[in-house]
Specification:
The chain is about 45% helix and about 15% strand. The chain has about 850 residues and is an alpha/beta fold. It folds into 4 domains: about 25-345, 7-stranded beta/alpha barrel (Alpha-Beta Barrel); about 360-530, no CATH class; about 535-670, no CATH class; about 690-845, no CATH class. The strands form 5 sheets. A 6-stranded mixed sheet has the order 7-11-10-14-8-9. A 6-stranded antiparallel sheet has the order 15-16-17-18-19-20, with helices on both faces. It is globular. The two termini are about 15 Å apart. The relative contact order is 0.08.
Length: about 850
């Protein structure tokens, strides 16, 4: 592939992180055309506020939740972007973030750091590499913290959103941000003033947000009206903001090319790098002398999630196509350092990129985002309800907080350090800096509750809650969950309940769905049931303990449960567990002590009683009373004893956290499924000859016999794969001479299934086999997941290579759609530094 740049590679700290393509700055030809492609990567936070974890979202299937789905479709594919040849083989694996200008929402970055550390580190490394390449001007820019519409925020929230966004960026990227992305590019004079005061040098807007512009010169030329979007986007502009000291009263602004950016999201120009470059080329002006910038911006999820495969087109465009056309890929910060503005602009008063009515989309029924016949009359009452709640919470925060903090608002701004890192050391440093006096543990808990109340009071303004057509959508429900958590914390702190008044105000927000009627109905149906109390966490622990062996200290979501006493007994088909536990919130450090008794009657029938711990004697007497009753074998009397001794709070299986409830239900059905599998296996074995005769004579097979064959063979595949997985975890690469044993058995099953025309139902087989291939590859190449360096192997075990290839072929023969991305990444990294293994690369789909 032609490329005028030299290409070098460097070994990452982690072997999965592929070598990056680095353009040597000295070899970049002097170019008049610069290209900056900006991706705004963001997803609304989806955590249950009570658990600080994202629960299962069925709409994201087959993934656990939408974050995971978009991670697999966009965030990770852009970190490990494939450049393919015409035969669909991988030629290069590159990091798009190295040459893509980008911002990633802080809440999304926090999730990535917990759930895919490889992708997270690739993003950080990409920015560092762009800094090294461009005199310290990196690709990454910051974002206001949780995507609130800044013109609609009060002054305190504006400040905190910018300060939290800067602090989060600084912690992750180890540098100060030069630019900041505003949610929906929503902007006004007050927002600009805050950006300037906090040291932000530039931001990005849509052409429709600019009113007029003129050249910067000693005499100042006449203003040019560009309110209809006619502004020239090929240069940066300076924007002066009144009320600030001279020399500190401006911010620079980039205007992205509106038509091309729109085409990126809504046409097919990203189907290939050539189509993309051809469209960008239409913006190149032949009548311009000197440098011109082709600047485009779109949602980062466009690359791979909204547009499948677009990350590959982007990769080739950034690394080859643009270069071949003599264009220089640049970030906004780097371009600004090379070409400071020679023009200035004035913005329209209050605007955003996704609403033609200013920012009405987030406060009124303006029609934007309507999607058809549904109204958005709920938008204004929803914002009014939240504004009322925010102001009530401010009063609680200021009155209560002044007894705990030296400066309540400085403490809130500084709390981002704790949000980013909730370790004891960080919390201690925070209190040392902000506490009014040496706080007791109870006062620290109150202080953290206040700060969490304020955090959720900002989260409830996340813009997505208003973006779509209906208040009961997941986005609207989510911001109401944040409001509910803030209300709950306020009640814990001062005993004042704001919920009834808040619900009354939500009743003024009409829903389009008759079932809900209004926002109050949404709140009661979808928000209140999602709230998780400490008692529910203990009930979850108690019921789950019948099926899991917990450590004495066990982390459950954002809580740590420690048992001081635990006892389990079984009698016939019944099980009983009793215990005394302490539960501590990792967020607020609130601590409580409980006792419990949980009784599994049978099937899906459970009874769990929870009581606050009073004293050791009371607990011992209650426990002994239940144990004596249970020993008598009476279900009715045992239930009565639990209700009498532990029944202050009672729970059943339906009140368990949904995912654990589903897991327990699966465990409970295992015995029945095992019996069914035995029955199907017997039928299959006894009728194998009959089945073969039907297929040999091309006759329709009785459905019952075909089902027996498909279930039996599906079960055998999973069973053998699990045995193979266990063996692979215990041996080295020499075991991978797996021409016999489990691999041979799997190959035999595949042949058998093919002969009998079986459609195997094995949804867990693909991830199991993918994991086996990756594990075998690492063992063969001696690459550990956390290795800090790569040792090239002089002689790779050929039988191990053959075993890996057979595993890949097995996936094809079983009809599995294997995802070999991670295996490709490991092998590609190895092949860049060590002698390639052509047959293995070919099996993995990599061109040698």
């Amino acid at each position: 592939m032609a490329n005028s740049h030299s290409v070098t590679t460097s070994v990452s700290d982690y072997p999965e992180l592929m070598p990056s393509v680095e353009v040597q700055a000295s070899e970049v030809p002097s170019a008049e055309v610069y290209v900056c492609v900006h991706g705004h990567f963001y997803q609304p936070p989806r955590e249950n506020p009570s658990l600080e974890a994202v629960e299962r979202q069925p709409g994201a299937a087959p993934f656990h939740n939408w974050n995971e789905r978009i991670l697999r479709e966009s965030y990770r594919p852009n970190a490990f972007a494939r450049i393919m040849d015409h035969q669909g083989r991988v030629v290069q694996i590159v990091n798009n973030y190295e040459f893509l200008s980008f911002n990633i929402g802080p809440t999304l970055m926090s999730w990535l750091a917990r759930h895919d550390i490889e992708t997270y580190r690739r993003i950080l490394a990409a920015d560092q590499q762009s800094c090294d390449r461009n005199n310290g001007h990196g690709n990454a820019i910051a974002q206001v913290y949780n995507h609130i519409i800044m013109p609609l925020a009060n002054e305190r929230d504006k400040l905190t959103q910018v300060r939290w966004g800067i602090a989060d960026f600084r912690k992750r990227f180890n540098r100060d941000p030069e630019g900041m992305w505003l949610a929906e590019t929503a902007i006004d004079q007050d927002t600009l003033r805050v950006l300037i005061q906090e040291g932000i040098k530039f931001t990005i807007v849509a052409p429709s947000q600019v009113q007029r512009c003129r050249q910067l010169s000693p005499n100042y030329s006449d203003w040019q009206e560009v309110g209809d979007g006619q502004i020239d986007p090929t240069r940066p502009y300076r924007c002066y903001v009144p009320g600030l000291p001279t020399g500190q009263n401006y911010i620079d602004i980039f205007v992205y090319d509106g038509p091309i950016s729109g085409d990126m999201g809504f046409s097919d120009i990203l189907q290939s790098s050539q189509s993309f470059a051809d469209r960008l080329g239409q913006a190149v002006r032949g009548d311009r002398h000197g440098a011109q910038l082709i600047s485009v911006a779109t949602d980062g999820e466009t690359f791979g999630h909204h547009r499948g495969g677009a990350e590959r087109a982007l990769a080739y465009a950034l690394h080859h196509e643009f270069v071949d056309r003599g264009w220089r890929v640049v970030s906004y910060a780097h371009y600004l350092s090379l070409f400071p503005p020679t023009w200035e602009l004035e913005l329209k008063p209050v605007t955003a990129w996704s609403c033609s009515h200013g920012v009405e989309r987030w406060k009124s029924d303006c029609g934007c985002g309507g999607g058809g016949a549904w109204h958005q009359k709920w938008r204004a009452p929803l914002r009014q309800a939240l504004d009322w709640l925010r102001d009530e919470l401010i009063e609680i925060y200021e009155i209560t907080g002044e007894e705990l903090f030296k400066d309540v608002w400085a403490a809130r701004d500084g709390y981002i350090d704790v949000v980013c890192d909730r370790t004891p050391l960080t919390i201690e440093q925070f209190f040392t800096q902000h506490q009014h006096h040496e706080l007791t543990q109870a006062e620290r808990t109150d202080a953290l509750c206040l700060l969490e109340m304020q955090r959720h009071a900002m989260l409830m303004y996340t813009s997505c809650g208003w973006f779509f057509e209906e208040i009961s959508r997941p986005e609207g429900t989510q911001i109401l969950r944040y409001a509910a958590r803030a209300i709950e914390l306020a009640k814990d702190i001062c005993g004042e309940s704001l919920e009834a008044d808040f619900i009354a105000k939500l009743a003024l927000a009409p829903s389009n769905i008759p079932h809900f009627r209004d926002g109050a109905g949404v709140y009661r149906a979808q928000v209140q049931p999602s709230r998780i109390s400490a008692e529910q966490v203990v009930a979850h622990y108690a019921m789950s303990s019948l099926f899991h062996t917990y450590h004495r200290e066990q982390r459950l979501y954002c809580h740590t449960v420690t048992h001081q006493d635990y006892q389990k007994q079984t009698l016939g088909g019944h099980a009983l567990a009793l215990g005394q536990v302490s539960i501590v919130s990792e967020i607020t450090q609130a601590k409580a002590n409980y006792t419990f008794a949980v009784f599994h009657v049978g099937g899906q029938e459970f009874l769990c009683g929870i009581c606050p711990f009073k004293n050791r004697l009371a607990y011992t007497r209650a426990k002994d009373a239940v144990l004596r009753t249970f020993a008598q074998g009476s279900v009715v009397q045992t239930i009565a004893a639990i209700q009498s001794q532990f029944g202050q709070y009672t729970f059943n299986l339906q009140q368990l956290f949904s995912e654990e409830r589903q897991h327990i239900m699966q465990l409970l059905s295992q015995n029945t499924l095992h019996q069914l599998n035995q029955l199907y296996t017997q039928i299959y074995r006894e009728n194998y000859g009959v089945l073969m005769a039907f297929h040999r004579d091309h006759m329709d097979v009785p459905r019952e016999l075909q089902v027996a064959a498909e279930i039996t063979l599906s079960h055998r595949v999973i069973d053998v794969l699990r045995h193979l997985e266990q063996d692979l975890s215990e041996i080295d690469e020499h075991m991978l001479a797996i021409s016999t044993g489990y691999l041979g058995e799997l190959e035999g099953i595949a042949v058998e299934a093919n002969h009998l025309h079986c459609h195997l139902t094995i949804p867990t087989a693909a991830p199991l086999l993918e994991g086996l291939i990756l594990q075998a590859l690492r063992q063969t190449l001696r690459i550990e997941p956390d290795a800090s360096r790569l040792d090239c192997i002089l002689t790779v075990n050929p039988l191990a290579v053959q075993g890996i290839k057979r595993l890949i072929t097995l996936g094809l023969n079983l009809g599995l759609n294997l995802n070999l991305d991670r295996s490709q990444e490991v092998y590609y990294h190895y092949s860049q530094h060590c002698e390639a293994i052509p047959s293995l690369g070919q099996a993995l789909g990599i061109a040698e």
